[in-house]
Design brief:
By secondary structure, this protein is mostly beta strands. 2% of the residues lie in helices and 26% in strands. It has one helix and 16 strands. The strands form four sheets. The protein has an eight-stranded parallel β-sheet with strand order 1-3-6-9-10-12-14-16, with no helix packed on it. Strands 2-4-7 form a three-stranded parallel β-sheet, with no helix packed on it. Strands 11-13-15 form a three-stranded parallel β-sheet, with no helix packed on it. The longest helix is centred in the middle third of the chain and has 4 residues, at 121-124. Keywords: Plant defense. It holds the Pfam family LRR_RPS2. It comes from Flemingia macrophylla.
């Protein structure tokens, strides 16, 4: 499969893979994306997705070219991407919210050296079922949620009521959860692990005074307002 350049023919029937539950892609070194825009509405039963060791992979979901009418709900619940050295986006820009992954429960991202963020804003605002988030060894990752989309509100609310475990390790350029003012609610968070994230400032400095030279401080990982009710484990290592 090392020479495979595409998986789906652009003319395949709409319901051809309607019952596909799991998809594993490994070692496809010529493949640049998994789901081109014309496939967005075709995998309503897909629950588990694993993509590993694909040297040319740049995007998992390519939404460029999708119109507003193409918006669709997926059943995707578990995502694992690993060893994709050229990956830039899991989902590329989706300002119209065309792809809904509201049922996502678990996402693991490992060894994606050029990835700069995990979710676009339109997706991150709707992850009410997310339980597990793991991001490891992504050297260029700057934030968890991208600031690329234009959002016409002063402060965003990100709410993850079922998130139990969040792990971040070997992310030397990670600076914040989201680079602008936002409110983060993780009422079920039980385990938070942060390791070797040297640029990350977890909590806002209550003594910071923007009038005396602190105007360059980056937004914190746990932002303006944060709600965490249950936290049993919170190891940190630099």
């Amino acid at each position: 499969m090392k020479k495979l350049t595409e998986i789906w023919h652009h003319t395949f029937p709409l319901h051809s893979f309607g019952e596909l539950d799991a998809l594993i892609i490994e070692g496809c070194n010529k493949l640049v994306n998994v789901f081109p825009s014309f496939t967005v509405r075709r995998f309503k039963s897909l629950c588990n997705l694993k993509v590993t060791n694909c040297k040319s992979m740049k995007e998992i979901f390519d939404l460029k070219g999708c119109g507003k009418c193409d918006a669709d709900m997926t059943n995707l619940q578990n995502v694992h991407v690993q060893a994709l050295p050229k990956l830039k986006h899991i989902l590329n820009k989706d300002p119209e919210g065309r792809l809904h992954i509201k049922r996502l429960k678990k996402i693991r991202v490992q060894e994606c050296l050029f990835l700069e963020h995990i979710f676009p804003v339109s997706v991150a605002r709707d992850l009410k079922n997310l339980e597990y988030l793991e991001v490891l060894n992504c050297g260029q990752l700057k934030e968890i949620v991208s600031m690329e989309e234009k959002i016409n509100v002063e402060s965003l609310l990100f709410e993850f009521p079922r998130l139990i475990t969040a792990t971040f390790s070997k992310l030397p350029n990670l600076e914040s959860f989201y680079g602008k003012t936002c409110e983060l609610r993780c009422s079920a968070l039980n385990n938070l692990s942060v390791e070797l994230c040297h640029k990350l400032k977890l909590f806002k400095d209550a003594n910071a005074n923007p009038e005396i030279g602190n105007t360059e401080i980056k937004p914190v990982f746990l932002p303006e307002k944060v709600l965490i009710i249950i936290l049993a484990s919170m190891p940190f290592s630099n």
